[in-house]
Amino acid sequence: MAPYLLFFLFSIFGLAYGTYTDFKKRIVSNWVTYGMVVVGLGGHGLWALLSNDAMIFANSLGVTVATFVGAYALYKLGVWAGGDVKLFAGLAALNPFNPNILTSLGLVDIEIFGSINTPIFPLTLFIFSLFAMLPYGAFLAAAKLAKNKTEKKKLWPDLRKRFFHALEISTLAIGFSALLSMFELNQLLTLPLLFVAAFLPKKSKAVAAAAMLFVGLWLQRDVAAQRFFVMLALLLGLYLLFKLYSLSKTLMRKPVAIKDLEEGMIPAQTLVLRGKLVETLPEMQIKKLIKQLVANSGGKAVKAEEKVIVSSRSAGGLTEEEIKELRSLLGRKKIGPTLLVKESAPFVPAVLIAYIALNIVGDVIWFWLF
User: Fold this and answer.
1) What's the confidence (pLDDT) of residue 308?
2) Domains in the chain, ordered, with CATH?
3) Which of 28, 79, 240, 346 could be bridged to 83 by S-S, CB 3.0 to 4.6 A?
4) Rounded to two decimals, what is the model's pTM?
5) What 8-state DSSP symbol labels residue 261?
6) Which residues face 278 on adjacent strands?
7) Cα–Cα distances in Å, from 21 out to 39, 155, 348?
8) Distance (Å, whole) CA 309 – CA 330
9) Which segments of the chain are extended strands (E)?
10) pLDDT (tens digit, 9 = 90+) per residue, 12-43?
11) With b meaning 16 or more CB within 10 Å and e meaning fewer, what string describes 37-66?
12) Where are any strands of DSSP class E within 14-163?
């Protein structure tokens, strides 16, 4: 257990310091990431030597290489910055397996909170980091929303509409659940019943919701009331979470004068040079992407003869060469005086949150799946 605790402490230190520098300068220092790789591989090498078990080092080395290759591919696709690649390589070197410190220390003894004997922890960490970005990104968006009167005015009418929608679903759910319990049927049948109810006309749905509320309270009373309030709060909470996260695309953007652009700023626009003209490509939404794939049409996609000046998909941000080109185009009056820039949420804090969570719940995601 001692080596796992040591690697855990090094990981926490690296992520904590990386969180600080990511918030302050939007970078992760090389000495932190390279240090994690050296300590991880060196520590596992020493552990393998003392234990006379070469697989200890082989697992660390193999997972580090595999993680670096996968992370580097994301970097080349513009999804990640270079610092994220090195950070995950360092975490892989330190943690080929889930340290699962609470279970190792005997503080938690729940079967699904254990760790599996498969060196895939970096993949699990990546998945959990994406999940962590949702509430974390929503929190940052909420802070921006508090200062944005225009977006707040837009939010309230939609919130009222969603409240009544959640009210209908909650009342239907407790009524269906109570009826299923009375006839000793599986509670999972509530889901298809809710699906069918969703297609009812508006007035019919309202009448059905009122009837199911009466049925639920009549058959199960306090239990139905508790379920109703819990489900209502859950639905509204999920709506706010996803709504705030989607609003972050609008709230966390600002125009920056071309002359004030700095290296590392992340563009929110994709500019391409077509002949002598510079055009702004629309953002590729999921629905549009699916339609284009079905129609086998590139639409506004960048063609081979076109030159991408800056891309909104580049997580690494603007380079000095791109900034120089933008200023040159501005001087020739090919583009406007500003560029829309993302105030993106730092990613390292989400990784820290995910790492701590995984040391509490272990490899629960794989226990659920398999």
Assistant:
1) 85
2) 2-120+347-369 (1.20.120), 149-251 (no CATH), 253-342 (no CATH)
3) 28
4) 0.65
5) -
6) 273
7) 20, 33, 9
8) 13
9) 253-257, 266-267, 270-274, 277-281, 307-310, 338-342
10) 999 999 999 988 877 889 999 999 999 999 99
11) bebbbebbeebbeeeeeeebbebbbebbeb
12) none
